[in-house]
Design goal:
- This protein is an alpha+beta fold.
- It has a domain of 77 residues: Sporulation related repeat (Alpha-Beta Plaits, 2-Layer Sandwich), CATH 3.30.70.1070.
- It is built from five helices and four strands.
- Strands 2-3-1-4 form a four-stranded antiparallel sheet, with helices on both faces.
- A hairpin with a 3-residue loop joins β2 and β3.
- The radius of gyration is 29 Å and the shape is extended.
- The termini are far apart.
Length: 154
Amino acid sequence: MIRKSVFLILFLIIPAGFCAAQGIGRSSELVPQGNQVQPGKLTIYQDPGVDSLIIRYILYNERLGGFEGFRIQIYSSNNRNAREESGKARQEFISKFPGIESYALFEQPGYYKIRAGDFRSKAEGTKYLLTIRRVFPDAYLVPDIIKFPDPYKK
């Protein structure tokens, strides 16, 4: 009985102490005093290594010709008439989805592929994939190197 009561007291007091450790700030600490406010000025202090990593990332992506993202693969085949079939599939895609760019690819040994879109995330690609699957039921999302987005296009 004594053990249970000691355990219960410790169980209730220790978490209460952790909650009380976070003090509530006074409102006078939140309001700037005197001339501390300098509107329109922002000073960022960061390690120079961060700039070096960002520059490396930019150069790596420029060498790739884009950056890692996702595309929707709507056609892939290596049979004898795959070239003609891939052209027909791409034309059908372009006529039904004119707002999404498509790409014709050839990979050894004789695979013709049609991929569409330039999606930065899997969630963004999945949104379009559900629409495209109505016309191309075998379409699926694949990781790929995508083009840099046009900053002026909205």
